[in-house]
Design brief:
Layout: E1 4-13, E2 16-26, E3 31-35, H1 42-50, E4 57-62, E5 65-66, E6 77-80, H2 92-102, H3 107-120, H4 136-148, E7 154-158, H5 166-183, E8 186-191, H6 194-200, E9 203-207, E10 213-217, H7 219-224, H8 229-234, E11 239-248, E12 251-256, E13 260-264, E14 278-283, E15 289-291, E16 300-311, E17 315-322, E18 327-333, E19 348-353, E20 359-362
Parallel strand pairs: 3-8, 3-9, 6-7, 7-8
Antiparallel strand pairs: 1-2, 1-4, 4-5, 9-10, 11-12, 11-14, 12-13, 14-20, 15-19, 16-17, 16-19, 17-18
Helix pairs in contact: 2-3, 2-4, 3-4
């Protein structure tokens, strides 16, 4: 297996610059996700890797090989598209076997390879079925088997689960993760769905609307320690509270109008962190504890009134209007084993969070 490297890659469409001197390295054998809003250039990157588009400038490497101008059929890279692109007039077996037929392999070898892959994607017994008779999840598995049959070094997945319902999507995400772990192949997964990216990837790159990579790292590192407001807001939900930084005896706090001082903790001091600078406190909704009665043992406290409640089954979301007029989201897990307070609309509540759960972001 080989790593992928893009060096100073630029690409324009109809005079509009999509990628500008992009540098990106995707490690060997990892499940890597490209996450960003629609139009940020993530699908363009996939098409450049596949050879479906050509760079305006820059280089693309597969391992040590420069594949910038290598034609599609000579790249050991295959793609699974959002619409699957199955041949409607061919059976499941023949869809998967198609590339092997082109290479004029023997019937016995084709049968052995196709049978092995269909077993791997849990479609044994479906060989004679036609694509139109399959469910969305089954069609997705056929597309996967067809992409894997030629033993590529890299598999590209372009929003492959977009057409599936939530339950089936969750099942397919698990299957994709297990398949990649078994094959040890480099998977590059493009999506605008942060749930999908967080679920399957070992590493991920967050792209902003300008086509730049805003942050690169593990899902946990990106979620827990976003480097910008864009990342914090795009990957999950968060609360932004504007304030002024105070530093005294090496301890950090943030002064917020109408709420007082918040104790905060930062493991790494950044250049913009000077006393008196304006910044944002970012606190994830699930990091906030909600109660109708005062509690002890928390670094920070806010108070307000519940104005909205959404029940999600596994969790409940509260929207709280603070005493300074700011609105805050709180997520509470619905745990049957732990008695929870009955919090209702218009209840006066206390909100608590620890300083370790605060991320400071530049204004």
């Amino acid at each position: 297996m080989k790593s992928i490297r893009l060096e100073r890659v630029s690409k324009s469409y109809d005079g509009e610059l999509i990628l500008d001197n992009l540098n990106l390295e995707i490690p060997t054998g990892q499940f890597f996700a490209l996450l960003g809003p629609s139009g940020c250039g993530k699908t363009t990157i996939l098409r450049l890797l596949a050879g479906l588009e050509h760079v305006d400038s820059g280089k693309i490497y597969l391992g040590d090989q420069d594949i910038t101008n290598v034609p599609i059929h000579k790249r050991k890279i295959n793609t699974v598209f959002q619409q699957y692109a199955l041949f409607p007039h061919l059976s499941v077996f023949e869809n998967v076997a198609y590339s092997l037929r082109i290479k004029r392999m023997s019937d016995d070898l084709i049968k052995a390879k196709v049978s092995e892959l269909l077993k791997m994607v849990r479609l044994s017994g479906f060989e004679s079925k036609m694509p139109r008779s399959l469910s969305g999840g089954q069609q997705q598995r056929v597309a996967l088997a067809r992409a894997l049959i030629s033993e590529p070094e890299v598999l590209l997945l372009d929003e492959p689960l977009a057409a599936l319902d939530l339950k089936l999507k969750e099942e397919m995400l698990l299957e994709l993760s297990q398949l990649q772990d078994k094959l040890k192949m480099t998977f590059v997964y493009v999506t605008h769905d942060q749930f999908e990216a967080l679920t399957v990837s070992e590493r991920m790159a967050i792209m902003n609307v300008q086509g730049d990579i805003e942050q690169l790292g593990t899902p946990k590192a990106i979620y827990e320690f976003p480097v910008s407001r864009f990342v914090a807001n795009f990957v999950g939900n968060t609360n932004f509270i504007e304030g002024k930084l105070q530093i005294s005896s090496g301890k950090y706090s943030v002064e917020v109008d109408g709420l007082g001082l918040f104790s905060v903790y930062t493991p790494v001091e950044k250049l913009w962190m000077i006393p008196g600078c304006r910044l944002y406190v970012s606190v994830r909704p699930e990091k906030i504890f909600i109660s109708k009665s005062p509690k002890e043992g928390f670094s920070n406290h806010m108070a307000g009134k519940v104005i909205d409640i959404i029940y999600y089954g596994r969790s409940t979301q509260y929207r709280v209007k603070l005493r300074n007029g700011l609105y805050v989201l709180v997520f509470e897990q619905n745990e049957e084993h732990f008695p929870q307070e009955n919090i209702d609309y218009d209840d006066e509540v206390h909100l608590y969070f620890q300083k370790e759960n605060v991320v400071l972001l530049e204004h």
